[in-house]
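queue> pop job 88
queue> type: inverse folding (structure -> sequence)
queue> payload:
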């Protein structure tokens, strides 16, 4: 499977994850995960290092994900995420018309503080296109927060019923669009952007 590489150096690899692919196996122990695909490719090329994800994206979410070449770098990069020093920006299609063009959603999740910032960049007949910046890193935070304010992400099936919305999509319309962080080894600022995948562009053209 062709996984586009967005950035690579001696310590990090950043790829554009396709929708529909797990990052790591669930308890069902699936073999076809992004991590397995990338590491199988390394093995075929005769490279000895292993790649480890520094964070997660949902199976259905596409976009930028950081891998590290080795466990010690993984720990350093995960520390950057834990200290909230990595700025993440997503593009999301959300159901309906958001009342405010920008705002903060501050509902705690599982007893922990959770904050999601958003800015509407376009409005269509049945949905809004928003830039979304999670300021905390709770599991499924963006999906749950938009469901809580009555505007679930288009294509959502886990936290909303498809039948409640006339607008349908073949996948969850959530894409990890930008990452900004200080490189854990070189201390250089890194800023990466990846545009919408073909299926989300196609959805925009049709709606």
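queue> result:
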């Amino acid at each position: 499977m062709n996984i586009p590489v967005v950035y690579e150096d001696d310590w990090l690899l950043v790829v554009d994850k396709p929708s529909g692919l797990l990052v790591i196996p669930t308890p069902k122990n699936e073999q076809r995960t992004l991590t397995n695909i990338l590491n199988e490719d390394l093995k075929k090329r005769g490279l000895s290092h292993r790649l480890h994800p520094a964070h997660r994206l949902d199976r259905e979410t596409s976009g930028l994900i950081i891998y590290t070449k080795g466990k010690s770098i993984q720990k350093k990069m995960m520390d950057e995420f834990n200290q909230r020093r990595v700025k993440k920006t997503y593009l999301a299609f959300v159901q309906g018309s958001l009342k405010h063009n920008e705002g903060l959603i501050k509902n705690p999740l599982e007893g922990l503080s959770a904050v999601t910032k958003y800015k509407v960049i376009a409005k269509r007949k049945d949905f809004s296109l928003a830039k979304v910046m999670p300021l905390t890193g709770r599991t499924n935070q963006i999906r749950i927060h938009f469901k809580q304010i009555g505007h679930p992400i288009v294509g959502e099936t886990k936290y909303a019923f498809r039948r409640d919305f006339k607008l349908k999509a073949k996948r969850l319309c959530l894409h990890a669009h930008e990452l900004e962080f200080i490189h854990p080894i070189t201390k250089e600022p890194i800023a990466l952007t990846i545009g919408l995948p073909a299926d989300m562009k196609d959805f925009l053209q049709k709606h």
